[in-house]
Structure formats: structure tokens, C-alpha cells
Give the backbone structure.
Amino acid sequence: MIERYSLLNIIVLGESLLAATLALGVAAAKGWDFELIRVAFSALLIVAAMWWMYFSREDHLQEESRSMAFTWGYGHVVIYLSGAAVGAGIAALVDISDWASQGGPVGG
């Protein structure tokens, strides 16, 4: 069970890495815009920190009780939602940075 939850977390973090790759792709198309490179580098640091925090312990579920297993399992919904929100936020930041570099209005 622990391995499957960990693998799903890796998939969610991979979505955030995909958003960082999107930032590098847009930066390369724009002639290596410094703001987009900074967004990509920051995204890589955030995803690495999230990975490190999740996998810092050898075994997450220490007890054998059923109630603790349910709490641990359903608690992962918050972890997955947080990782997906970070990836969506990075992708939105790339879109905003790209739109602002094209001369579009920012913030309204």
C-alpha cells in the first residue's frame, strides 16, 4: 500500500516537473527570457523540496491499526491536491509571464 501511494505521489510531482519543462520551452522560444528561466529553476527547487519532504522517512505508516491506515490513506488526498495545485500554479505563472512579455495587461 505504501509503495502505491508513493508511486502516485511521484506521478503528481512529475506533473509539476512538466510545468517547469513548459517554462523552459517557452523561454527557449522567446530567446531565453530570464523571468521564465527563473520560474523554471524555482519550480525545480519546489518540486525537489516536496519530493525530499515526502520521501525523507523510510516507512510512513508505522502502526498496523485499521483506523490509522484509513487516516493515512485518506490524508494523502491533501498531499496529492497540494502537489497538483503547485503544478497548476507553476503552469499559470508561465502563462502569465509569457503573456506579460508579449505586452499584455497583467492583473486585470
Summary: The radius of gyration is 17 Å.
